[in-house]
Amino acid sequence: MIKDESDAKTILDRLGKLSVFLKNLDADAGNDECFNYPLEIIQKTMMFDVSVLYKVSNIIEDRLILEVVKVLDPKKSRLDLKEGRKLRLFLDARDKRYVNEVNAFLNKNVSCINVPGMGCDVMGYVFFPKDCGGAYLFGGDFFGKEASVKDFEVSTVEIMCNFLSTILLKTQLKQKAEYDGLTGLYNAEKIKEELGILLKRLERKPEISASIAMGDIDFFKKINDTYGHIQGDIILREVGNILSMSMREYFDMAGRYGGEEFLLILDEIDGDRAVQVVERIREKIETTRFAQVDRSGKIIENQFLNITMSFGVAHLNNGMNNGLNKGAGDFSTLTNHISKADNALYASKQSGRNKTTLFKETN
After folding, report:
1. Which of 26, 218, 293, 300 is the most exposed place for a label (fewest CB within 10 A)?
2. How far apart are CA 140 and CA 43, in angstroms?
3. Own/partner long-range contacts of 266-273 (Cβ < 8 Å, ≥24 apart)
4. Count of C-beta atoms within a 10 Å radius of residue 317
């Protein structure tokens, strides 16, 4: 029994559609989403019984650790491939079920060694920088004695690997350019860009309400000086997580503005309601117990730190609603609105910290 022959013309057509799909893929989509289409091509168009995606988790001495990320196996042919399972494979490929996985990883290319009735028949390597999460492997298996993998099928897998390597790297570089590596929030340039987009929308539709908030961790320098910068980084990371989880999807966004300062954009909300939202965030941070670590980064059991944050809120279209706005150009000045939130933050600091203050225009 041999594998059904695939049609080269049909595969070429699917490769063209894959190229368009990957180019149009949202940069915020997860890495695994990029592989859905290629896995379908292998299983449905190239006529393999099974297609599988692995993520390279680690290499420990003479073993390669792979995580099974996704499997298309409608006939339940490969019971050893369960999503979430970790495979520990010897790098000398002594287990013939996974000879192509090991070979593809070691050679950083496509492997199609035929082992009748055992393991995947073709496996490709998708390069991804180690600091971005490591490599991926994906391929297909015909559950029979002879796979008869054609040269154009091998070339197809190789082309898909190159497509995926390029798009994953491009997506990761874009994310690195927009996101703060420590907190996972937007970086300063990106959050200011988003604020600029919002201000332009408010110019066109002045009836819409929106607010921003500037937040600052109280006595953060003292935390670094007392407990070390690793402790400070842990607090920044956790604060970033709290802020991210507190944002309304499709409405709000948060960014690390610099150091221990954060800028929040709260869309479709006036100043008073924005203060209520920010107050809930401030209270959440105040009641959070942050894990304490020593200067080497080791967690100290049953030791925690409590911190507080101060916030300043500015209603973005106060001037427009009150007839005080001097023109669209003046209204769209980023620094003007950020300085209002910053002034309100300063007032919170001056009045004792751990507070939220709403900026109010003075005549």
Report:
1. 26
2. 7
3. 266/210, 266/211, 266/212, 266/213, 267/198, 267/210, 268/208, 268/209, 268/210, 269/209, 269/210, 269/211, 270/209, 270/211, 270/315, 271/211, 271/313, 271/314, 271/315, 271/318, 271/358, 271/359, 272/358, 273/211
4. 22
The yes-or-no verdict on residue 214 having pLDDT over 60 is: yes
- Catalytic option among 260, 279, 286, 361: 260
State how far the Cα of 151 lies from the Cα of 143, in Å rounded to an integer. Answer: 19
pTM (global) more than 0.85: no
Task: Note whether 320 and 275 are within 8 A (CB).
Answer: no
Long-range contacts for 70-78 (Cβ within 8 Å, ≥24 apart)?
Answer: 70/32, 70/35, 70/36, 70/39, 72/39, 72/40, 72/42, 72/43, 73/49, 74/43, 75/49, 75/50, 75/143, 77/49, 77/50, 77/141, 77/143, 78/50, 78/52, 78/141, 78/143
Give the integer Cα–Cα distance in Å for 38 and 47.
13
To which H or E segment does residue 116 belong? Answer: none
Domains, the chain, in order of start with CATH, read 8-175 (3.30.450.40), 188-358 (3.30.70.270)
Identify whether 286 is a catalytic site residue. Answer: no
pLDDT, tens only, 8-35: 899 999 999 888 888 777 655 556 678 8
Report the DSSP beta bridge partners of residue 144.
none
